[in-house]
Amino acid sequence: MKAGPSQEEIRRHNLGTLLRHVHIGGSLSRTALAERMGLNRSTILGLVSELASVGLVREGLPRETGRAGRPSLVVRTESDRAYVLAFDVGVDRLAVARIGLGGVFLDRREIPVPPGGHDAGKVAEALAASALEMVGTAPKGTSCVGVAAAVRGMVRRPDGLVRTAPYSGWEDEEFGEDLVRRLDLGLPVSVENEASLGALAEHLRGVATGCQDLVYLHGDIGIGGGIVTGGRLLGGDQGYGGEIGHMVVNPYEGRPCGCGARGCLEAEAGERALLEAAQRDPAATGRDAVRAVVEAADRGDVAARAALHDVGDWLGIGVANLVNVFNPRTVVFGGTLREVFLGSAAQIRSRINRHALAASRENLRLRVGELGDDAVLIGAAELAFSEMLVGPLETLARAGA
Amino acid sequence: MKAGPSQEEIRRHNLGTLLRHVHIGGSLSRTALAERMGLNRSTILGLVSELASVGLVREGLPRETGRAGRPSLVVRTESDRAYVLAFDVGVDRLAVARIGLGGVFLDRREIPVPPGGHDAGKVAEALAASALEMVGTAPKGTSCVGVAAAVRGMVRRPDGLVRTAPYSGWEDEEFGEDLVRRLDLGLPVSVENEASLGALAEHLRGVATGCQDLVYLHGDIGIGGGIVTGGRLLGGDQGYGGEIGHMVVNPYEGRPCGCGARGCLEAEAGERALLEAAQRDPAATGRDAVRAVVEAADRGDVAARAALHDVGDWLGIGVANLVNVFNPRTVVFGGTLREVFLGSAAQIRSRINRHALAASRENLRLRVGELGDDAVLIGAAELAFSEMLVGPLETLARAGA
């Protein structure tokens, strides 16, 4: 428990907070900023001027006002002045984006996983090469202020070591450090689990904006989870929290799981369980294969309907457990679970009603993610921007701009 | 997101933080306080003087120094100057305590649940009468600065409404408001779930001191949970978070649960499951009956050993799920689960090793609560003190002292 901040720390905090408001909230008038921050208008004016003098925000006319008369000016971010690099290491594709203040995608590329994708070094090499091309073509006077990468695995919080990323075959990879060396931008690289970043994105910019307590389920080959409780991303002691795919829901009769246990939620309700139950070609996997099952069920395919029913049962049980444990306001289904939810919502709801306590579920909203496949990149960008939003001037100065 | 604090807010924050340090940490030298709070010694001197002038702390010689030479003075709380009232509404007994700064029990009584204990009004009446006797006998010049009550049920965070307390037969009881009226001390009454308060107590003063991520399981008739993540008590959207007793672990074959579902952790591993499996007299319930099963198992009683084995299996599965979801540093077994853990630790550990991910459990510690039956009262007292530790002078002034 520390003492209160100094005057200088307060000034830094206020600059960061103002920038965060316009970064997340878009265009805001100085009056609105004064209200949200609890400061008087002259203090706000000073803060806006300071951020504008280094090119992070500018004032201008609102895009549309809908009212007659002279509109008041609004403050907005200069989306190109400071940007971050966001990486998403998927199972079968890599994505790289250059994202500006305000969450604007300035550049975006997908590249195939390089041959020998189990070699984390080759993945880092491909990502770094693509990112450096983006940095090279960025306009003059713009600065990269942060880098973050999403992986399908368990990431140790203090140092970003990827302890295990089973679908990439990684164990104890210093992936972030490797990216730091290859990029050579003088910036640290934050590494985080993809579902946690999906949760962060939907919390800040998606379907759960303004919601302080949410559970995000991310379907991919496996089932990942990202949890926001009291407005903060749950990490746990070492950063491994949120592994909801390995909650045991069927301990004795359950299907074997990749983790070595039996009856995990991921084993019962993951992609493989769905595709097997729907009697699909074992070679077909991924989002398209899952979508095909949902479409077949819509057309009346008996095996597909039964598969969605079973998977919905297990998902409902898993979500009910999470509702009892977290009392979230919103549960968000992302990745391939978006499609699965749309195909088995009735079953999921029925299980939640049976297994979740009445008080815990009475205000519950079930939603599909609204950021789609970009959720993870958007979350990575927010993680990469976090230092900037704490100390804008210091971060910009360190970026050599 | 608010702007940084004013000078006055900083002063208040620093007074509260200093008081919290000595309230939780015991006697501390001014040098130690300066270090922990990141303030210089003259600022600390000013804060100590201000708190001492209203009688909340005093400086004196340490109780023992173990070093030669003149010992430095230490700051400690005046345990009797400001106190709180803590209530614990158990299933078969009520407890009331008057607890001073520093967590010192100044007075403590147990009273039986009044006839017709399903009437929340009668319970509040008995608690208030006992508490007012304590207030009446408190020394002159002392002030009651907060009141909190623990209940075995689900409590709505914003207003303290007891939505349901199944073992007391309560539904939608304005229990806190009722206590406010009956006590008539001009103070609000905070109401909270008993397992959340047990978690808070073990986190602040017990076996998990200094641990920021812990899961506390409280055994009573049912199984309650209190979760601290990132140093904060998990509440969820409405305050109902932590209902780990209703995680489904055995959805198809499971025993019926009091909540109406089947295969909840509480149904499989709670007191009733243990006593039935151990073939005990159905009339014997409670802590003594549970302890008798553990003792019988120690002596080689076959049914008792089998019962502990089964219950340990389910508890281990439940804990493994919580380890995957929360990645806690410490799992604490409190209430009757203290005894159950001591009798089935091997089984619990074996299940955790099978079902929890290796990274999530590698630093995990399993512990029994060290505050015993008082954990809940201690947690209630901390909740009642929380306003005092944010603004000591304002709280004292409001208490009319």
Automatic annotation (TrEMBL), chains A, B:
Record InterPro entries: ATPase_NBD (IPR043129), ROK (IPR000600), WH-like_DNA-bd_sf (IPR036388), WH_DNA-bd_sf (IPR036390)
Gene3D superfamilies: 3.30.420.40, Winged helix-like DNA-binding domain superfamily/Winged helix DNA-binding domain (1.10.10.10)
SUPFAM superfamilies, per the entry: Actin-like ATPase domain, Winged helix' DNA-binding domain
Classification via Pfam families: ROK (PF00480)
Coiled coil location: none
PANTHER family reported for this sequence: BIFUNCTIONAL UDP-N-ACETYLGLUCOSAMINE 2-EPIMERASE_N-ACETYLMANNOSAMINE KINASE (PTHR18964:SF149), ROK (REPRESSOR, ORF, KINASE) FAMILY (PTHR18964)
Protein family membership: Belongs to the ROK (NagC/XylR) family.
Protein's name according to its UniProt entry: ROK family protein
Organism the protein comes from: Streptomyces actuosus
Higher taxonomy: Bacteria, Bacillati, Actinomycetota, Actinomycetes, Kitasatosporales
